[in-house]
Amino acid sequence: MARAKRHYIPGQVWHLTHRCHKREFLLKFVKDRRRWTQWLFEAKKRYGLVILDYTVTSNHIHLLVVDDGDRDTIPKSIQLVAGRSAQEYNQRKKRKGAYWEDRYHATAVETGEHLLRCLVYIDLNMVRVGVVSHPSEWVFGGYNEIQSPRRKCVLINHEKLASLAGYDSYNSFRESHKKLVNESLANGSNIRDRQWTRGVAVGEKQFVEKIKTELGSKALGREIREASGGYELRERTISYMTNFGSKRVDMGLENTYSWKVFP
After folding, report:
1. Helix, strand, or coil here: 39?
2. By CB atoms within 10 Å of each CB, which of 80, 110, 155, 160 scores lowest?
3. What's the whole-number mean pLDDT along residues 242-256?
């Protein structure tokens, strides 16, 4: 099967999603989720990956990053994190074969309000599937680090995150972030929204049109649609890709299996 070409648009915020092979729960053990975050920290040190948020679930990951102008930073980082975490798991379990789906999906997210909405969507992932009642209870996500920045092994670039979200101070951003999460939990708006996992771009119409123009021929035939809170450009091919040798499958992140979380 022919593979879609990589797209590269410098300076964008990207929401990346990557699922385990055949939707298996290969990240169900704490040690494997912890190793994924440790390799993410290594990618930050090695390649300068600018991380804004993340969540590691039992069968897929969400990662919010901003491009630093080097077209190789994101692909190399994902290759490192996904490759090493898979290698360690397979060696420990004496397992052979693909660990990840061969492609990860990348959605360009407009800064400001849309970035905040994406952030909340990522943070509430494990609440949506009923594992926890509040994102603070899930340690393998960025919510706690955003709300209480740590001093060691820092993953999230807090000042960059606040700036891209449109705030002059991190304290103001943090208060808004907490408020938005709590409001989403209270008003029942915490539902699965495919614009964040299948869209090529999400934002205001002008932003989405700009992304479509910059993609050029790669976006031919793709429609700009109204979505909740804005617009999206929907495309079946994906922006960044890493080949891990498995067959291409649907990357939609429906959580259709019962969740099992093991210590």
Report:
1. helix
2. 160
3. 38
